[in-house]
Specification:
405 residues; alpha/beta; FAD/NAD(P)-binding domain; ten-stranded mixed beta sheet; six-stranded mixed beta sheet
Length: 405
């Protein structure tokens, strides 16, 4: 059995396949955890794992076409793949469809944190620490979108525990929130160290016998003579079945197997910096779209939604724009200490839902399209797909996430 992709989703699939006694070989085009699983802010926040396409996101995208300061960046002349994605995104950006997407994600969201507890209880040294999420607001308008998302989560049946803080209250508990006029504090979420998480999972699957081939890109998948044939940079490989968990590169491999959901990379930028104090959880600045969280003894800062091809080099002007916004909201940081700079693609789907399950090709399965919520939903997605591959009845949670939809 093969797994293509060494991020949190692919490693979770491999780990759960091994739980069923299935021998696994894993192929990763770069090194384990090199993609979005490494460079994110390390927050497992099921209360915030909502579909990306909704009216506010559309307004942000349109604003990016005329405002060079926008945190959502689109090419001036989108190609065919991006155009198809944007058309699908617009079609799903109604309140009705967004609410339906919330209901589709609910079964995964309610089980997401328990999966981290399960991994820890079964020998994977994962620390998913309870930590608050604080949205730092310069005015009430900046919190409107988040409050609407939280209200939608509650309406879909997900329990959400949050309160409102005055500027003085939030500055007292989080000194880095110097410009806060008010804040939204969300409890009940978890914080992780992303590099440690992927390293721990990778070590666990290796220890249990998986062969992990790093620097080995899979370029094509086909079914021939009752086997699934993988074309790699090192030659051909026949396996009984394969799970495609290749992140932003998933569409290139899955399209010929009937996966027609429009997908496109949404690249993000991150770096770490030293600060006088570290927050107790995630600090999110909705206005400038800056998110930061403590990773070790440094603050990781993330931002941008750049709809650029996955393998394009970083855009220097975009990185400078990101850094300028981060400096504005974190004036006390030591900006001479910037390190761990990263650019990577997040796998977005036009309807904002992951693709989990079988394709039209026997023995070819898909696990991906989690957007910004791969850390939150990766472990539970890995379990659901692995259980299906192992022959268990399909979990009803998979129905709206069918890759052939």
């Amino acid at each position: 059995m093969a797994v293509v992709g060494g991020g949190i989703v692919g490693l979770s699939c491999a780990w759960h396949l091994q739980r069923h006694g299935i021998s696994v070989v894993l192929f990763e085009r770069d090194h384990v955890g090199a993609g979005a699983s490494w460079g994110n802010a390390g927050y497992a926040a099921p209360a915030l794992a909502v579909p990306l396409p909704e009216p506010a996101a559309v307004r942000a995208g349109l604003r990016s076409l005329i405002d060079p300061r926008s945190p959502v960046l689109l090419p001036k002349l989108p190609g065919r793949e991006l155009t198809r994605f944007l058309v699908g995104f617009l079609a799903h950006s109604s309140h009705r469809r967004w609410s339906a997407g919330l209901r589709a994600l609910l079964p995964l969201n309610v089980r997401a944190l328990a999966e981290y507890d399960y991994l820890a209880a079964n020998g994977v040294p994962v620390e998913a620490v309870p930590a608050p999420f604080i949205a730092v607001l310069r005015n009430a308008h900046e919190g409107a979108g988040l409050l609407a998302e939280l209200a939608g989560a509650v309406a879909a049946g997900f329990p959400v525990d949050y309160d409102l803080l005055t500027g003085a209250e939030v500055r007292e508990v989080e000194p880095l929130a110097a410009g806060a006029q008010l804040a939204i504090r969300l409890r009940g979420q978890r914080m992780l160290n992303p590099p440690r998480l992927v390293d721990a999972l990778a070590e666990s699957v290796r220890t249990r016998g998986a062969a992990v081939h790093e620097g080995t890109a899979v370029t094509q998948i086909a079914r021939r003579n009752g086997k699934v044939e993988l074309s790699t940079v090192d030659g051909m490989r026949d396996v009984d079945a394969v799970v495609l968990a290749a992140g932003a590169w998933l569409p290139r491999l899955a399209r010929e197997h009937g996966v027609r959901v429009p997908m496109h990379p949404g690249r993000g930028y991150s770096f770490s910096v030293r600060t006088p104090t570290l927050p107790s959880g995630m600090l999110n600045f909705p206005g400038p779209r800056i998110a930061c969280a403590p990773i070790g003894d440094r603050l990781r800062v993330t931002s941008l939604m750049e709809l650029w091809p996955a393998d394009r080099p970083p855009v220097a002007s975009h990185a400078r724009r990101f850094a300028a916004r981060a400096r504005a909201v974190l004036p006390s940081a030591d900006w001479s200490s910037v390190a761990d700079q990263w650019v990577g693609p997040r796998p977005l789907t036009a309807d904002g839902l992951p693709v989990l399950g079988p394709t039209r090709t026997e023995g070819v399965y898909v696990a991906g399209g989690h957007g910004m919520w791969g850390v939150t939903l990766g472990p539970v997605s890995g379990r659901l797909v692995a259980d299906l591959v192992a022959g268990e009845p399909a979990d009803p949670a998979l129905a709206p996430l069918d890759p052939r939809r």
